[in-house]
Design brief:
8-stranded parallel barrel; globular
C-alpha cells in the first residue's frame, strides 16, 4: 500500500484546510518545493498535490510552483485542482506529472474522464469528494444530489488508476478516517480506492492497511503529518 503525503497549495503556500473551508486555513510551509523535498527525503514513494486556487477558479493557478516541484524531486506526483480539459491534462503529462486527478470535471464533463482514460490508461484518478454521502464539486464549494457510490459505478469499466475518496466532513478535522464508507465504496466497484480525509493517528493507518484485500491501495496523509501526530517513518512501515 502507498501512503501519499499531501501538499495543498493556496496562494503559493502549503496549507491545510478544515472541511475544505478556504477561510479556515493553516499555513504549514511557505515553500511547497522544500516540503516536497522533505517528503522525498523521508522515504515517501509518491506525492499528492492539489492546486486549491485552481480548484476554485477552474484552471491551474499555482503552475510554476508545481513545475518547480516536478524538477526538484524524482518520485511520482499525482495532481488535482482545476484540471478541466484535455489540453490541460496533456500539458501536465508533458511536464512530467505522473497521474492526473479529475473531480469536478468528471461531474460536469464525464466524457472527458472517459476519453482521458482511453488516451492515458491507468494514469487518471477519479476524485470523489463526499459531503454526507453526496458528491461535492468546485473545490467543495458546491454539493450535488449525486450519491458517491452511484456516481463511481458509472465509471466502473474504464481504465482508471484509482478513485480517491474523501469524506469532506472529516477532512482536516483529525477525527479519524471514515473507514465504513471507504470500504463500502471499495466493495462496490472494480476500481482501486485511495482513502482520504480525517486520518488522525497510527491506529487509522493500521485500519486502512488491514483492508488492503478489500480494494484499498493506499491513503492520503495531510493534517496528521503536519501537526506532528503521526511519525512518518512508523506510518510508512505499517503501509509497507
Amino acid at each position: 500500500m502507498i501512503l501519499y503525503p499531501a501538499i495543498d497549495i493556496k496562494d503559493g503556500k502549503c496549507v491545510r484546510l478544515k472541511q475544505g473551508n478556504l477561510k479556515d486555513e493553516e499555513v504549514f510551509n511557505t515553500n511547497p518545493i522544500n516540503q516536497a523535498k522533505i517528503f522525498e527525503d523521508l522515504g515517501f514513494k509518491s506525492i499528492h498535490i492539489v492546486d486549491l486556487n485552481g480548484a476554485i477558479k477552474g484552471k491551474s493557478v499555482n503552475t510554476e510552483i508545481i513545475k518547480s516541484i516536478r524538477k526538484n524531486i524524482s518520485i511520482p506526483i499525482q495532481l488535482g485542482g482545476g484540471i478541466r480539459d484535455m489540453e490541460s491534462i496533456r500539458e501536465w503529462f508533458n511536464i512530467g506529472i505522473n497521474r492526473i486527478i479529475l473531480g469536478t470535471a468528471a461531474i460536469k464533463n464525464p466524457d472527458l474522464l472517459i476519453n482521458s482514460c482511453k488516451i492515458y490508461p491507468k494514469k487518471i484518478i477519479l476524485g470523489i469528494d463526499s459531503r454526507s454521502g453526496k458528491v461535492a464539486t468546485d473545490g467543495w464549494t458546491n454539493t450535488t444530489d449525486k450519491n458517491y457510490i452511484e456516481f463511481a459505478l458509472k465509471f466502473n469499466d474504464i481504465s482508471l488508476y484509482a478513485i480517491i475518496f474523501t469524506d469532506i466532513n472529516r477532512d482536516g478535522m483529525m477525527q479519524g478516517i471514515n473507514l465504513n464508507e471507504t470500504v463500502k465504496l471499495a466493495d462496490s466497484v472494480n476500481i482501486p480506492v485511495i482513502a482520504s480525509g480525517g486520518i488522525k493517528d497510527l491506529d487509522d493507518i493500521k485500519l486502512i492497511a488491514q483492508n488492503k484485500n478489500r480494494g484499498i491501495i493506499g491513503a492520503i496523509l495531510g493534517k496528521a503529518y503536519y501537526s506532528g501526530s503521526i511519525n512518518p517513518q512508523e506510518a510508512l512501515k505499517i503501509m509497507r
